[in-house]
Structure formats: C-alpha cells, structure tokens
Design a protein that fits this description.
44% of the residues lie in helices and 18% in strands. By secondary structure, it is an alpha/beta fold. The protein folds into two domains: 203 residues, Spore Coat Polysaccharide Biosynthesis Protein SpsA, Chain A, CATH 3.90.550.10; 102 residues, no CATH class. Strands 1, 2, 3, 4, 5, 6, 7, 8 and 9 form a nine-stranded mixed beta sheet that branches. Helix 9 packs parallel to helix 11.
Length: 325
C-alpha cells in the first residue's frame, strides 16, 4: 500500500504541450506493478489543455506543478525539488513504460546500496506508440565512468531510476546545456556512484519530429562545452578518452544533419569523427553512416530514398509467408 506522505518512488514527468501523448504515458505509470509512488506532472508553461486535464484526475498520487516555460531541465529540477520519494524515476511526456519497470528497478536499488542509478534497455516506438523492431541494448554497469565519458550510454532519459541522495550530492540538471544536460547529469552521478542495469527493454521511446533537435549547431556547441568541462576534472589516466568523446559526439550529430538532408555538414562531421577517434572506422554506426552518405552523394537524397524503399520491398517480397513450408 502506498503511503502518500512518504512514497518510495517519485515519478517526474515534464510536460510541454504534450496532450497528444500524455494520457497514454500516464496510463503506463498507472499500470505499473509497483504502486508505492507519487506522480509529479510538471506543466512547463503549456498552452494546451494539460492543466485542465490533470485537474480532472482523481488518483491522489498525481500532483500538478505549474511553471512558466523554462525548458525540460528546469521542469525536471522542479519535480526533483518537490519529490518526496527515496528514488526518482524520470519519464518524458511522450514515452511509455512496461508494467514491471519500476518494480525491477526498485529491487535493484534495494539489493545494491552502492548503486546510485539503474537504467534499462529501450525499445523504439513510432509516433502512435507502437513498438518497432529496434531495441537499444547496453551491457555496461558498475563503474561506468570510463564508458559514459565517451558517449551517453543512456539513449533515453525515461530509463533511469536515481536515488534522491545522488541529486543532493551532485546537484540538479544544468539548463544551460540544453540538449546534453542529461548526459552531463549521468557523468556527474557516475563519478561518485555505481550504475545498475536491467537487461530488458522496459521503456518505449517514441520517435516523432518534435523530439528531433532541429538546431544541430547549438547541439554541437553544447557537446563541446560539456566535453571540455567534464575533462577539466577527469584524472590524468582518463584524459585519453577526450578524443573518443569528440569522435562519438561528431558521429552522433552527423546523423542529425543526415536526418535533415544536410549532406555538407554531415560529411564534415563524419570525417571529424574518424579524425578524432580512428577506431570508429570499424563501428557499425560509422560504416552505415558512410554508406548512406556515399549513396546520397551519388544519387541525391531523393534517389537514395527511392533506392532504399525499393530494396526494402524486394527483401520483404523474398520472405516466405507463414503458410509456406
């Protein structure tokens, strides 16, 4: 039974004009097998019906906190400041949780006192919330600092459950870092605590145009600021990871430019990635990206898209139906 005054888990949901997705997201919290929780919905200056909709919810575990539009980091910080739980679970307003997510993460933290953050695998979903075949896996737990300095191993901010004491020790999200504030937070936590991992896809990460950053240049500056700041306090024996961090960052932003059909900048960052970290040459992400860039340069973005779709149809037509033996 949940103690409304002393819940074990605080679920923090920042929401900005998210009514298209928020009801299903909240249902995925209500459907959790673990029920000793409170739900803090942070209305970040929404202009839709978020406030009116939340006001009609009768579940006493739900609390609305309204603020002027300050961005997702400040919304998360408002939730953390008002949270009463020992553990804090972040959930973006357009993502979904599988029913056993909280139960398994609480068990992990209860069984491992040295773990400050526990995350899970992620399954990608389309805009309607239907799961796709793509699953983001990870195999890094324990002392993850060496790994997380190189790249953000948590691909989705809706995966972690974090001890409240971690925020007391390392501070809250840095809103000045915009799109990389979550990676900055995970680095700070990893510098002091161990990480746990549930090797199951317990989060559905919804993909839609609104969660794709349109300002690649601003993201590039954020990455640069974060990497320089992080490595300013890294021990000498880990300084060699700095070029790797830049390599992964440039490769990631090259994908963003590629999504927006900006071949010039995508190619430039693809080359910078390999210049900073040559071993990326053998990674699946770099190989795939380079092949796509080569095809787009040869056939143009539209020609590449037609060729890709034709190949998909050809492969699909070769698959035997379930009725064939």
């Amino acid at each position: 039974m949940s103690d409304l005054n002393h819940p074990k888990v605080s679920v923090v949901i920042p929401a900005y004009n998210a009514m298209r997705y928020l009801p299903a997201t909240l249902d995925s919290v209500f459907n959790q097998t673990y029920t000793d929780l409170e739900i803090l919905i942070i209305d970040d200056g929404s202009k839709d019906e978020t406030v009116e909709w939340v006001a009609q919810i009768t579940d006493p575990r739900v609390q609305l906190i309204s603020q002027q539009n300050k961005g997702v980091s400040e919304a998360r910080n408002a939730g953390i400041a008002n949270a009463r739980g020992e553990y804090i679970a972040l959930l973006d307003a357009d993502d979904l949780w599988e029913p056993t997510k909280l139960e398994k993460q609480v068990r992990c933290l209860e069984d491992n006192p040295a773990v400050g953050l526990v995350y899970t695998w992620v399954k990608y979903a389309d805009e309607e919330g239907n799961p796709t075949e793509k699953v983001q896996t990870a195999y890094v737990d324990g002392d993850v600092l060496k790994h997380i300095l190189q790249s953000n191993i948590l691909c989705c901010a809706s995966t972690p459950m974090i001890r409240r004491s971690c925020f007391d020790a390392v501070g809250v999200f840095d809103s000045k870092l915009s799109g990389v504030a979550d990676w900055d937070m995970w680095i700070r936590i990893a510098s002091r605590y161990l990480f746990g991992l549930i090797k199951e896809p317990l989060v559905l990460y919804r993909q839609h145009p609104n969660n794709m950053s349109n300002n690649c240049q601003a993201m590039l500056l954020d990455f640069h600021q974060l990497i320089e700041r992080s490595f300013a306090s890294v021990p000498p024996n880990l300084q060699y990871l700095k070029n790797r961090a830049y390599g992964h960052a440039y490769l990631y932003i090259a994908w963003k430019y590629l999504f927006h059909k900006d071949l010039k900048n995508a190619i430039d960052l693809n080359r910078q990635a390999i210049a900073h970290y040559p071993q990326l040459f053998f990674s699946k992400s770099y190989i795939r990206q380079s092949l796509i860039l080569a095809a787009m340069r040869r056939f143009g973005p539209q020609g590449y898209t037609k060729m890709r779709d034709s190949l998909k149809q050809l492969i699909s037509s070769k698959q035997p139906s379930l009725g064939n033996n």
